[in-house]
Amino acid sequence: MNERKRLTRPRTGRMLAGVCAGLADFFSLDASLIRIAYVLLTIFTAFAGVLVYILMWIIVPEEKNHTFDR
Asked: Distance (Å, rounded) from C-alpha 8 to C-alpha 47?
C-alpha cells in the first residue's frame, strides 16, 4: 500500500505549535536543523518568518489522535 506522506503538526516533540517539528517529519530531517534555519530566515527577512509561522499554524492540520480512534 502506497500511502502519501502528509504535512501535519505532531502532538509530541513540539515547542510552540509544532510547525517546525511537522516540517522536520515531512522532510525526514532533524527538528533542530529546521528550527535553526527558521530562526536565521526570520532574522534575515525582517521577521517575516513570524507571519509565515502563524499562517502555517492555522493552515497545517494537527495529526490525528490515534489513542481514541476506533
From this structure: 24
Please report, rounded to a whole number, the percentage of residues in the chain having pLDDT higher than 90.
71
Q: What is the DSSP string of 14-60?
A: -SSSSHHHHHHHHHT--HHHHHHHHHHHHHHTTTHHHHHHHHHHHHS
Is residue 6 within 8 A of residue 15, CB to CB? The reply is: no
> Is there a contact between 30 and 24 (Cβ–Cβ < 8 Å)?
yes
Cβ 61 vs Cβ 9: under 8 Å: yes
- Between CA 57 and CA 8 the distance in angstroms is 10
Residue 61 scores a pLDDT above 80: yes
